[in-house]
Design brief:
Helix content: 40-55%
Order of helices and strands: EHHEH
Structural class: mainly alpha
Strand content: 5-15%
Radius of gyration: 15 Å
Largest sheet: 2 strands, antiparallel
Number of strands: 2
Strand order of the largest sheet: 1-2
Distance between the termini: 28 Å
Number of helices: 3
Amino acid sequence: MTQCPPEDLSLLPWTKSEELPSGEMTSLLDAKVLRQLVRVYLTSNPPKTAQDFNFQAELKAVSHWRWLKDDAKVELVPSPHRDQRLKEAADFVLKKWKS
């Protein structure tokens, strides 16, 4: 895989969202440990390249990452335990916790 220089990100059209997110941001996976590792991975591994941004977007999609409104009813979804993105995030977090 080729690395995309960070300056290439400046070529993308960025628009500021007018609506600020409210509530809690979390994964809706039905396995608590998977929700925790996704949260740890996303908060301790900030994206640096376009591939990192893409991977995190895919990880958020596969882990059903959502902004929860204050009055929203939470419905957990079955987790795709064999998804490669979850395995990579788990590997990163487990190595971090071990050290």
